[in-house]
Write a structure and sequence with these properties.
Helix content is 36%, strand content 23%. It has 607 residues and is α/β, with parallel strands linked by helices. The protein has an 8-stranded antiparallel beta sheet. A 6-stranded antiparallel beta sheet has the order 5-6-7-8-12-13. Strands 16-15-17-18-19 form a 5-stranded parallel beta sheet, with helices on both faces. Helix 3 packs across helix 4, helix 8 runs parallel beside helix 13 and helix 9 packs antiparallel against helix 17. The longest helix has 20 residues. The chain is globular. The protein binds 2-deoxy-2-amino glucitol-6-phosphate.
Length: 607
């Protein structure tokens, strides 16, 4: 996640912006920069490395201005260079950005054909160039931003500053959080309340699709349709803002909704600047050196391994063995130097997983940890620790960590396929192009929350619930059942759809909701047959599918939930949203402690 700050102040904004950027360090950075407008003239200073480098640059080349925007950038795609650092400037426009612009390549080609000269490898520069072209065409800054936003695809947060306008900033939120800070005759923009805390505790959180025209008199907020929107101005408790729920009732809700932005961040870390190749910044990982991949984890992390098994085997043709950590070492599995063993853990402290890592440490060819805590025990004891970049996950039930684990494995399966000679570079780029659609598609799936909340009212009445799925939807069925169990305390089981008829179908009657994860893919018709076996016995089927699937198979089902149409490769990431959201709203209906369910702990540090 990158950090954004913007200030329309009554006094010099530069030192305040640097202070605010330091408060965004928890988001990480590999470069930082600020731009100001003074007497209508845009100025910009950028530096590679930590904030102290930007301060050193400012000491030797000072910048003044009461209006400015600033940015921190983490070591994401490609080498961190000054040219790639934000803010990006084109003509009279300066912009800072957090997220992914999916269609930056065709837009860049279009702009280049119109004569635009690009100076960086980033997708962000396309936003500055497009906005500048709109202004050159005679639009006002507000019209230019409005027209620019309409051309962008992806999930992002943006802040704009304009030459000739000392009292104007424009902010936009689509999939990544952004907040407006209210001062006394001053106004601010920030990635979160923490960044704004040095200036104000009066905050308005932009909602999905909002954009705001900010002057020192206040902010005019427009919704995604361009209508003026009235958003709540809240007084934020700045002391606890580090783990602030923002506008959400629970951390679980906040973390579910953070997925578009953290996933963009996770993906960016493992893609080169042009998003044409997968990279592993942490070190050399060559899948072609190994005969087998062994993956070990617990709970939700294990289900991420289960999905990854399909991807590695299908894309790279490498055999994958998976196991839960608590069983793995006690069966004394043979491990060879030709084995790559991957341990997955959000906390990096799960005792079962750590013990399993120690079992293989002197046996395996390479021990890799895929973790959300780079300083954790599992990260430290592995040969190579790969971060998932999900940010702090407070809720005991894992959500954004799961989808970030999937995103990392999706990227690694593409890398493995290329290294094992199974795909050409062009195919790698095509698969990556699909991956960069994920933040937007998750956003679209999140828009179904009201429908999921309605369904949860009925699920909350059930005593037993089954989840079914085929292919990569089978581990999603397992994860959906786990989420429901641990959040609402309702008994739930996940099954491979084809396995139901081998016994579990005896459980079916009209009191048992059966949730089928079934995107239209090569296995769809088989899943529909299993669904019909359930309905023939009075079972209530909730069909979770896409519009085509609903068209083909919703006759006779109890309810249908329609998700965006997606490539089967990406389905597990998108179908995690209903798995999480149905459980979350069922728990609310049941009145359980959503963020700290009974009997559980966020990290199980005992075997
Ligand atoms: C997930 O919702 C559960 N809280 C639990 O299964 C969890 O995934 C498991 O304990 C593993 O935790 P880890 O990823 O921190 O190792």
């Amino acid at each position: 996640m990158c950090g954004i700050i913007g200030i329309l102040g009554k006094s010099d904004a530069v030192s305040l912006m640097v202070t605010a950027l330091k408060r965004l360090e928890y988001r990480g950075y590999d470069s930082a920069g600020i731009a100001t407008v003074t007497d209508g003239v845009l100025g910009c200073r950028r530096a590679v490395g930590k904030l102290v480098e930007l301060e050193a640059t400012l000491a030797t080349a000072p910048l003044q201005g009461k209006a400015g925007i600033g940015h921190t950038r983490w070591a994401t795609h490609g080498a961190p260079t000054t040219a790639n650092a934000h803010p990006h400037i084109a003509g009279p426009v300066a912009v800072v950005h957090n997220g992914i612009i999916e269609n930056f390549r065709p837009l860049r080609d279009e702009l280049r054909a119109a004569g635009a000269k690009f100076t960086s490898e980033t997708d962000t520069e396309v936003v500055a160039q497009l906005c500048a072209a709109n202004i050159a065409a005679g639009m006002t800054p507000q019209q230019a931003v409005d027209a620019t936003l309409k051309r962008l695809e992806g999930a992002f947060a943006l802040a704009f500053l304009f030459a000739g306008h000392d009292n104007l900033m424009i902010a936009a939120r689509r999939g990544s959080p952004l907040a407006i800070g209210h001062g006394d005759g001053e106004m601010f923009i920030g990635s979160d309340a923490l960044a704004l805390a040095p200036m104000t505790n009066r905050v308005t959180y932009l909602e999905e699709g909002d954009w705001a025209v900010v002057t020192r008199d206040g902010a005019k907020i427009y919704d995604a349709l361009g209508n003026l929107a009235n958003r709540e101005l809240r007084v934020v408790n700045v002391d606890s803002v580090m783990i602030d729920k923002g506008t959400h009732r629970h951390f679980m809700a906040k973390e579910i909704h953070e997925q578009p932005s953290v996933l963009a961040f996770a993906l960016s870390h493992y893609l080169n600047a042009n998003r044409t190749a997968v990279v592993v910044p942490e070190g050399d990982l060559d899948f072609s050196q190994f005969n087998r991949i062994v993956m070990v984890a617990c709970g939700t992390a294990f289900y991420a391994c289960h999905v990854a098994k399909y991807w590695f085997e299908q894309h790279a043709r490498i055999p994958v063995e998976i196991d839960v950590a608590s069983e793995f070492r006690y069966r004394e599995p043979p491990i060879s130097p030709r084995d790559l063993v991957i341990f997955v853990s959000q906390s990096g402290e799960t005792a079962d997983t750590l013990a399993a890592l120690r079992y293989v440490k002197d046996k395996a060819g390479l021990v890799v940890a895929v973790i959300n805590a780079p300083e954790s025990s599992i990260a430290r004891e592995a040969d190579l620790a790969l971060p998932i970049k999900a940010g702090v996950e407070v809720s005991v039930a894992s959500s954004k960590a799961f989808t970030c684990q999937l995103a990392v494995f999706a990227a690694l399966s593409i890398l493995a396929a290329r290294q094992c000679g199974k795909i050409e570079a062009s195919a790698e780029t095509a698969l990556i192009q699909k991956l960069t659609q994920l933040p937007r598609l998750i956003n679209e799936a999140l828009a179904q929350e009201p429908a999921m909340a309605l369904i949860a009212r009925d699920l909350a009445k059930a005593r037993d619930i089954l989840f079914l799925g085929r292919g990569t939807m089978f581990p999603l069925a397992l994860e959906g059942a786990l989420k429901l169990k641990e959040l609402s305390y309702i008994h739930a089981e996940g099954y491979a759809s084809g396995e139901l008829k081998h016994g579990p179908i005896a459980l079916i009657d009209e009191s048992v909701p059966v949730i089928c994860f079934a995107p239209v893919d090569p296995l769809f018709d088989k899943t529909v047959s299993n669904m019909q076996e359930v309905m023939a016995r009075g079972g209530k089927v909730l069909l979770v599918t896409d519009a085509e699937g609903a068209e083909r198979a919703s006759d006779g089902v109890w309810k249908t939930l329609i998700l965006p149409k997606i490539d089967p490769f990406l389905a597990p990431v998108i179908y995690a949203i209903p798995a999480q959201m149905l459980a979350y709203h069922t728990a609310i209906e049941k009145g359980t402690d959503v963020d700290q369910p009974r009997n559980l702990a966020k990290s199980v540090t005992v075997e």
